[in-house]
Amino acid sequence: MAIEAATRAKAASVLVEDVNLSYGATHVLKSINLEVRPGEFFAFLGPSGCGKTTLLRLIAGFNVAQSGRVMVGGDDISGLPPWKRDVGMVFQSYALWPHMTVAKNVAFGLEERKLPKAEIDRRVKAALELVGLAHLAERRPSQLSGGQQQRVAVARTVVIEPKVLLLDEPLSNLDAKMRVQVRRELRDLQQRLGLTTIFVTHDQEEANTICDRIAVMNDGVIQQVGTPMELYERPANLFVAGFLGAANILEGDVRSHGGNRVFEIKGGTRLPIPKALPADPGARLVFRPQYAELNRAKAADDVDGLTGTVSHREFLGAAVRYSVALGTSEVTVEAPFRSGASLIEVGELVTVFLAPARMQFLAS
Amino acid sequence: MPVFNRRLVVAAAAVLVLSGAPHPAIAQAPTGKVTVVTSFSKDVTDPVKKAFETAYPGVTLEVQNRNTNAGVRFVQETRANNQVDLFWASAPDAFEVLKRAGLLQAYKPNTPGIPAKLGPYSINDPDGMFFGFAASGYGIMWNERYTRANRLPDPKEWADLGKAVYHDHVMITTPSRSGTTHLTVETILQGEGWEKGWATLKAMSGNMRSVTDRSFGVPDAVNSGQVGLGVVIDFFAFSARAANFPVKFVYPTVSTVVPANVGIIANAPNQAGARAFVDFLLSDAGQELLLIPAISRLPVNPATYAKAPDGYPNPFKGAIGLPGFQFDVGVSERRYAAVDVLFDQLITFNLEPLKAVTKAMHDVEARLARRDNPAARALLTEARTLISAMPIAGEQAASDEVRASFQGTTPQAKAPRQAELEQQWSNFAKEKYAAAAAKVAEAAKLAP
Amino acid sequence: MTAAALNIPRKPSIPLSQYLVAGSVALFLLLFLVIPVATVIIVAFIDPRSGGFTLVNFADFVRNDLFRRSFGNSVYVAAMSVAWGTVFALPLAYITSRFQFRGAVLIQTLGVIPLIMPPFAGAVAMQLLFGRNGSFNLLLGDWFDINVPFMEGLNGVILLQAIHYFPFILLNVSAALANIDRAMEESAQNLGASGFRLFGKIVFPLAMPGYVAGASLVFIKVFDDLATPLLLNVKDMLAPQAYLRITSIGLSDPMGYVISVVLIAVSILAMWVATLATRGRDYATVQRGGGGLARRKMKGLDKLAAYGVVFLILALTLAPHAGLILLSLATVWSFSPLPDGFTMAHYGKVFAESPQFIWNTLLYATLAGVISVIIGAAIAWLVQRTTIPGRQMLDYLAMGALAVPGVVIGIGYLRTYYGVTLPSGQPLATFWFMIVIALAVRRLPYALRACTAGLQQVSPQLEEAAESLGATKARTVRKILLPLMAGGMLAGFVTAFATASVELSATMMLVQNTSDAPLAYGLYVYMQSPAGRGPGAALGMIAVVIVGLCTYLSHWLLARERSGATKH
Description:
The structure holds 3 protein chains of 3 kinds. By secondary structure, chain B is α/β, with parallel strands linked by helices. Chain B is built from 18 helices and 13 strands. Helix content of chain B is 46%, strand content 15%. Chain C is an all-alpha fold. In chain C, 71% of the residues lie in helices and 0% in strands. At the B-C interface, strand 2, helix 3, helix 4, helix 5 and strand 9 of B face helix 3, helix 6, helix 20 and helix 26 of C.
C-alpha cells in the first residue's frame, strides 16, 4: 500500500543535541541528548512532570528550547515552526476537530499541502482503511468511541506521511481492555509503516510491550536509554531500577571483611560482593524479586547470605511472593509456584540467595 | 439681530432673585413640595427654581426634566394617582392634548399688565387651562464659520432658504415633534393659504439637509457646525451666543411668536403651590428672570421690556414682524394631526426625492439664467406645480373624516386607518416628485 | 408528556426546589416584563374602529412603503454592523488570547469601553470628529478638497453601531477562544496549517458558538436601537419609527406598537436562528489537556503588525470617547478640527451640581447587574441542568427583553404600577427601585447569555461528583457550581452593569425626582442646552471612567482567580 512504502522510505532519524529549556525559573529540560534511529519505535518514559511531553512538543515545534538543537533526518529543524516540520503528532486528547467529519479531519493535512483532490480522496481512504475505519468516514468525531477516535487521530497524522510520528500518551484516554488492544494495533501499524515513532508514556508496561528502545526521564534529565530488557536487567541508577518493574533496593555499607568486600545491611547480615561487580561506598544493593532464591535458614547469624524472617506471603498463581524482614529493611522475593511443593510459612527464618550475576550495586 | 449687554442682565436678574417679594395675590400661603414636569433645560429651570424658592420660603420646586412627549405621556399614564402639580413647556400642542384629556384645571391668575394677545396669537388658553408666561420668536440661526467657509450669504427671509445657494445647508425640526415648528407651519399655511403655503414649505424643505425629530437637534447641529443654517426658536440662538458659539440669528420680516406655557394639572397634590408657581412666573419678578441670557425668552408683560438691555427684541413694539392676519385657533386645532402627518409623509419621509428634484431644478435654473429657454421654463413651472400638489385640500384636512383617522379609537366606519392614509399620501408625494423629476430632466435637455 | 414517559420509563421526578426556582423566575418575568409590556403592545392587536382583536394593523405594516423600507434598512444596518463589528472584534480577540501580548488585559478592557457609550454624547462626539464638517473632513477638505461621508445616513449608523456593540463579539469570541483545547490548534499546525488558514479552518469554526452568540446579540441590539439612528437623524428604520409613533403627542395610532411587536418577533427569530446555527454540532472542545490556546511569543514584523492592527482598531473604536474627552474639555468647538480652547470648568460644574447622579448610577447599575445575574444564572441552570417543563420558554422570554424598546417598558411600568402605592403614598412605579428593576430586566439578556456560556463550561460530572460525596443539591450549587461559573457570572455582571449605567430610555419614563435620577438622565438634561454640552460631555466621561475602572477591576479579579486556580 502506498502509505507504507512512502513512510518506510521517509523514516528519518531524530537527534536531540544538548537541549535546555526553562519556563522562568523552572528548568524543565536539562542538557538532553538523544538519538532515535530511523524506523525505531522509541518511548519517553517517566513520571508526570518529568519533562517527557515537553521534549516531545519540542520536537514537534510547540516548545522552543533556550539552547541546543533538534535534527530530523540530518536536517536541523530547530528554527522551523510546527507547520513546516513534517513531524506528525497524535495528541493525548486526540484533538479531533468536532466541526469536521472523520474524512475531513483526515484530509486536513493533505489539503494544507495543496494536493489534488483525487489524490487526497485516495489517501484519506487508504489511511482510514489502514486503521479499519473506512466505513465511518462521514461520521463526526463525537459519534465515535474512544478507540475509534484514537485511530482517526492516528490516521489523520500518518496520512501526511510524516518523517517522524509523535504519540503523546495516546492510550491514556482508553479503558484498560482497549489499551491492550490499541497498543498492539499501534505496534503493528508502526511495523507496517516502518515509521520512526516516539511515544510518550508514564506507564512502563506500555513502553516495554511496544517499544524498541526507551528513554527513561526524571526531573528533566534522561536517566537511561536502552531496550526494555537492558533497562530491566541493568538499570543505570536507582530511579530507573525503581521505575521499571518491582525492585528491591537495600541500604547498607560496602565494607572489607576478611579481605573481601561485603555489603552489610543494617541489622548486621552481610553479603559478599562478587569480584567483578563495581560497588562504590554508600551504594545500594538492587535486585528483582524473582531473581532471588529463598531457602530455609539454619541459624540467624549466617553471614554469607541475607537472613531474615518471612513477614508476609501472597499467592499470585504462577508465583508466590514473600516479604522478608531483614533487620530494619524488607525485601520481596517471588518464587515460582510448583504444584505440590511445600511453601515457606510466615515467621520462618530464611536466607535470601542471590546469584552474583543478579546483583547490582547502584549509587544512591 | 438683538445685542445684549450680558453683565447688565445678569446683575438685574440677581437683584430680582435676592429681593423677590412674594406676589401679593396669594390667598393661602403655599408650602411643601411643588412638582413640575418640564421640557425646559437646566439653564431655564435652575434660575427659576432658585428665585421661586426664595420668593416663597418653605416651598421646594421639584423639577422633573422630560422631553415634551415623555412628559405628556407621563402625565397621561399616571393620572390615576397623580403626583404632578404643573406642566411647564413650550409646545402649545402638548397643552392642547392635556386639556382635551381633562388633565388640566382652570385657574385665573392675577396678572395685571399682561395683554390677551401678542400679534395674532392669544397668550393664554381661552378656557383658562394654561397660560403663556413667555414668548419666543421663530427665525433663522446660522453658524458664521460655516457660512464663511461655504461662502453663503447671511439669510434674511424664509424665502431665502429656498434659494439654490442654501441647498443641503439647512435643517428644521418636523412639526410632528415640535409644537413650535408646527405653529410656524400653521402660520405659513394660514398666512399664505393652504396650497401656496405648502408650496413655500416644500420649496424650503427641498433644500433641507435633514428634518430632525428633536427641537434641540437643530441648534445643536448648527452650534457644532455640522449644518450651516437652522430654523429655530430665538432663545436657542441667544443661549448659544451666551455660550460663545459662533452663531447668528435673524427674525424674518414676517415671523411667528410662540408662547411658552404653564398649566396646573387636574388633582394637583399641591394646589396652593401650583398656583403660586403660575403667579410667580407671571409676576414682575418672574417675567424679569426671562431676560437672563441663558434663558432669553420674551416676557409677555410689555412693561418688563423697560428693564431689558438695549436691543432686546420687543414683539409688542414690532421688533419681530408678526403676521397681519387673524390666527384661527379653531382651524389650527382641527387639522393639527393632519398637518403633522402631511408634513412627515410629503417631506420628512420623502426628503430624498424632494431634495433630488429641487437640486435638479436649481441646476436648470442656473443654466437658464445664463441663456433663457421659454420651453424649459414652462417645464420647470409644471414641475413646480407637481411638487406643490397636495393630496387633500385645506378644508378636507380639518374635516371630521380625516380627524377620525387620527383619533384611533373613534369608531367612524368610513374613515381610513391612519396607516392607510399615510400610505396614500406618501404614494401621492412619491408619484408627484417622480413626475416633477421627469419634467425637470426634460427641461435640462432643453436648457443650454 | 405520555410519549416521553413511555420512552424514559423511570424518569426521576423533579424536586420541589426546582419548581420553586422556576416559579420565582417565571413570576419575576411575568410581573416585570410580560404584563407591563403586554399592557402596552396589546394595542397592536386591537381594531381602532371596533375595539376587537384584529391583525389588520399588521397588514397595514406590510402594505406601507415607509415601514417596508424601514424594515429593510434595519436589517441592512444590523447585518452590516455585525460585519464591521466582526472586523473590529476578531483581530482583537485573536491577538490578545493567542499571543503573549503586553497589556492584553488593558486591551480587553479598552475593547469593552465602547459599550459604555453615554447617550447623546457618543453621537455628538462622532459628528464632531467624522461628520460632514467634523475634524477629519475639515482637514481632508483643507488638504485634498475631499469629503468622506463617514457619518451620512445609514453609513453613520452602521459605523457608530459597529463601534458601540462590537465588544459583544469581542467578549464572546474571547471567551470561546479561551475554551478551545490548545491541542485542537496544535494538531492543525502539526499537519501543516498556519496563519489565516489555521484561523479560518480550525480556530474560528471552533469559536463559532461564541461568535454566533456575540453576533446575534449585536444584530438584535442594532436592530432594536433607536437612539443612535435618531441622533444621526436617520428616521427610516424600524426602532426609530416605533419610538416616534409611540411618543407622538395626541395620536393614538397603533402602528408604533405594531412595530414593537415586529421588533420583538424579529429579535426572537434571530435568536432562534442563532440557536439553530450551532445546534446539533459538537463544539465541546474542552477535553483533557485543555486550557485555552497557547499564548505564543511574536517576533519582529509579526509583532509590529499585530500592535499596528490593535492600535488601529482601538483608535477607531475609541474615537467617540476621544471626541468626548475633547468635548468635555472644550470651551467652544464649532466647525473646527479642534476646540477653540480648553477648560476644566465643565468638570467643576458637574461635580458641584450633580454628584448625586454618579452615586445613583453606581447604586442602580450595581443592583441591576446583581439582579440580572441572579435571574440569568437561575434561568441558565434551569435550562441546562433540569428537565422542568417550559424552561426553554423562560430563556426565550428573558431574551425577548432585548427587543422591547425601553420606552415601552417605561410606559408599561407606569401603567401597571402607578396605581400601586407604597406606604409613604408614593406610587410604586416611581419608587427608585423600579428603575433598578427596569434596568435589570433590560440587561437580563446579557447576563443570561454570559451565565449560560459560563455554565456550559462546567461539566455536570463535577456536580455529580460532589453529590456522590454526600453534598445536597443546594450545597453542590453553592460550593461547586457557583465558584466554577463565577467567571461567566462576572462577565454577565460587567456587561449588565456597564450598559445599565448609561441607559436612558426606560429611565426617562420612571424618574420622579432629580435626586433619584441616574447619570444618563443628568446627561440628557445637560445636553438640551448649548451651555450644557461641555458639562454633559464631562458627566459622560465620568461615567465612562467609573464604569471602565469597574470593568478593569473585574477583569483583573478574574485573571487573578484564574491564575490562582489549580491546573488540570
